[in-house]
């Protein structure tokens, strides 16, 4: 029984043998098909290009040349990019710079104005009188003396006219002598350390009539006595003056202050009372240059030394 099974198995094996032949035929056919794809695989010729990268771990090198031109391209714009970066840094440090720039602009504007003023000043000398001429210098001094409110010192006049002090002093003395010799109504006097124009005493009545409307403003005897005490013992308090005169001097003091003959000059350190002294107008009205020109004894002043004994 086993033998027939072997026979059956034989043809079964033969069956596959035939299928094997068919497979051989298929293989033969496949072999013919294989050369065709082998020819198609000829694009393997491009594989040498891939072989170059194989030899090419230099593929990196090929990437590098590709990166090199790319690096070269940004390398050129980099310098201009670096240029704006410092420009951006300038404004960053520039909150202070802005103020400095504004200050510089203002300074330039001020300098421009000064330059313009300088140009104008440079243009003036041609129009200015020639002060090297004595007659012109005298005229310039007269114009200054007419506008001053207080005696003008030689140094002030010299700096204004840009002349030596010695020349100004000599010119003022010459002017004063000329006014006196010509009988001018102007009397140029030296008061203290400066010079000032006054009206000649002979014409004082007319000046008073014009200014006071015919009323002569003379000081009373009480005012003269009070003024004398202050002149000889200045600075002095009101209480000490009242002690010397033996009467209240409040009203007289107010009158003298109003006339501009005396003025306040601080407080007494012992009593705290207001101290009074004479003014430049006092010297001018008396025709004096300084208090040292006062006579040694005033006719209206009693015992001057008694003031020191008054508490």
Plain-language structure description:
The structure is a single chain. The protein has 311 residues and is mainly alpha-helical. Among the domains are: 134-202, Arc Repressor Mutant, subunit A (Orthogonal Bundle), CATH 1.10.10.10; 221-309, Orthogonal Bundle (Arc Repressor Mutant, subunit A), CATH 1.10.10. The chain is 61% helix and 9% strand. The chain is built from 15 helices and 6 strands. It has a 3-stranded antiparallel beta sheet with strand order 1-3-2. It has a 3-stranded antiparallel beta sheet with strand order 4-6-5. A hairpin with a 2-residue loop joins β2 and β3. It is extended and about 70 Å long. The N and C termini lie far apart (175 Å). The model is unreliable at 1-17, 23-36, 43-48 and 307-311 (pLDDT under 50).
List keywords for this structure.
single chain; 311 residues; mainly alpha; Arc Repressor Mutant, subunit A; 3-stranded antiparallel β-sheet; 6 strands; extended; disordered N terminus
Q: How many β strands by DSSP?
A: 6
Largest sheet: 3 strands, antiparallel
Q: Could you give the order of the helices and strands?
A: HHHHHHHHEHHEEHHEHHEEH
Strand content: 5-15%
| CATH classification class of the domain at 221-309 | Mainly Alpha
What is the annotated CATH architecture of the domain at 221-309? Orthogonal Bundle
In short:
With 311 residues, the protein is mainly alpha-helical. β2 (186-191) and β3 form a beta hairpin.
Describe how the helices and strands are arranged.
Layout: H1 2-33, H2 35-40, H3 47-54, H4 59-75, H5 78-82, H6 84-92, H7 94-123, H8 134-145, E1 152-153, H9 154-161, H10 165-182, E2 186-191, E3 194-199, H11 204-212, H12 221-233, E4 236-237, H13 238-245, H14 250-258, E5 262-267, E6 274-278, H15 280-286
Antiparallel strand pairs: 1-3, 2-3, 4-6, 5-6
